Amino acid sequence: MMFCATCTVNKAPPPPSVVASPPLSPPPASTSLVSPPPPSTTASGSPIAPSNTSSSSPSSSDTSLSGLSMGAVIGIVAAAILLLLLLIGSAWWIVTRIRASNGASSAAGLGNAPTPCHQYSLAIVARATGNWSKYSLLGSGAYGDVYRGVSPDDGTTLWAVKRAKVITTDFRKEVAQMATKHHPNLVRLLGFAVGGDVNTRVENVLIYEFIANGDLQRWISHDAPTSLTLLQRVDILIGVARGLEYLHSFDIVHRDIKPANILIDSHMQAKVADFGLLRVGEGSSMGSTRVLGTVGYVDPAYCRTHNVTTAGDVYSFGILMLVVLSGRGATVHEMNPGSEPGSGGDQEPVSISRWANHLMAGGMTSLLRDPRMAAPEDIIKRIAQLAVSCTAMPTASRPSMLQVVQDLEALREEVGGGHARARAAARVDAMMVDQQPMRSMDEDLALVKRQFTLESETATNFSSHEGSAGSR
In this structure, is residue 3 part of a structural domain? Predict the structure, then answer.
């Protein structure tokens, strides 16, 4: 029998040789000790896909986690954007409300953003006024002296520096509040200074914008540079009323309304000056029973009770209206109560409001008009009636400053319309004159001869009449 050398007969393999070996070290963690089983096959030999059990592959698990993380990130970003938009909207609403409350007034618009308020040292302010030189003194009020100064910032801007007579402990707080009050008809606060100790005078100084045209007293006095028209006077009164109405919207009382505290700018618009931060119901904030204000303008109710109310400003404004309308002072000396104007007597001074009441009751409203000013009598009467209502007693019967503004603005429409109609009529008259046909020279000579003949006949008749009267 022949055998192939490469063929093997069922022959048991030789027994393995036994060799002593060292103990096996544990395999690495990444090495599997058990080989994965071979893939199962079907009867045809094709592999069977593994079943989808809880032991998912690592790749599918990572994909699921990544999807959840992306959704969470998108949600967080969307929520953050929404929250940011809500915060921006809330901030915009709050700022709008604050601006609206600061600008609550019947006046239309408040102009540009105000100049910030700065603190200066007393030494700088003193140098700006020439060390409080008497030549820089502009005037004195119930609350302090006012000096002209030059700003050290640019060397050209003029200041009106108020050196307070009454020192308050809450000065910085008052300045902080005052710096937020901005209105076209209020003098703008530019800065302040504080200082002093036990060895020197305590100083509270306020720095305001300088108004070049001076105060209202200068413009209504008989030596004024020019006489104000009715329309200018009504515009000035409206400006003062708007400024007061703005202060009253914050329960702030001026307490010293008079022509000297009304400044006139280059556009002949009024600005209320020398206002503090005395609030309604505070009474005498300086702990004194001394009545502050100006004689003739002070509300009699305030003199009795020392209770500060907005009605006191309304009274002072009513007196101011009559002063501006008539060109007189707050008290008049040409009549006694109950007597006729110009009747003489002991010349006892009376309030201009009482005098106005007397004139209106007697049908002599025209005497309330400044003789330098042309104005219809019905307009004079309505302005006087509004002014007298501001001084009415009891104080509860007086109008508010908002009502006064509205009434004056209605009057202004009529006054302005009257001026426009008068100007239009004047233009029509001028056009009619221009359109008239020119007379010839012969017609002019005939007119002169006729005029000469009439004058000669009149002189002859007069001489004959005188002669006959003498013979009798």
Answer: no
CATH code, 366: 1.10.510.10
Whether the Cβ atoms of residue 149 and residue 192 lie closer than 8 Å to each other = no
Contact 175, 206 (CB under 8 A): yes
Is 429 an active-site residue? no
Report yes or no on 287 lying in a domain.
yes
Helices then strands (H, E): number in the chain?
A: 11, 10
Which has the closest alpha carbon to 372: 202, 179, 219?
Answer: 219
How many distinct structural domains can be found in the chain? 2
Let me know if residue 137 belongs to a domain.
Answer: yes
**Quick one: average pLDDT of 222-249?**
95
Verify that 255 and 191 share a domain, yes or no: no
180, 210, 240 - which closes a domain: 210
Shared domain for 206 and 224, answered yes or no, is: no
My answer on whether omega of the bond before 337 falls inside 30° of 0, hence cis, is no
Q: 256-306: per-residue pLDDT in tens?
A: 999 999 999 999 999 999 876 677 766 544 444 567 788 999 999 999 988
Give the active site residue among 256, 299, 370, 407: 256
pLDDT, residue 9, reads 43
When pLDDT is averaged across residues 314-327 and rounded to a whole number, the result is 97
* Range 157-160 contact pairs with CB under 8 angstroms and sequence separation of 24 or more: 157/210, 158/210, 158/212, 159/128, 159/129, 159/190, 159/207, 159/208, 159/209, 159/210, 160/187, 160/207, 160/208, 160/209, 160/210, 160/211, 160/273
Q: Is residue 381 part of a domain?
A: yes
Tell me which of 184, 210, 236 is where a domain ends. 210
Tokens representing 360 are 């209106």
Residues in the chain: 472
The reported pLDDT for the residue numbered 286 is 42
Per-residue DSSP letters for 247-268?
A: HHTTTB-----SGGGEEE-TTS
* Domain interval for residue 334: 213-464
Residues 162 and 238 in one domain: no
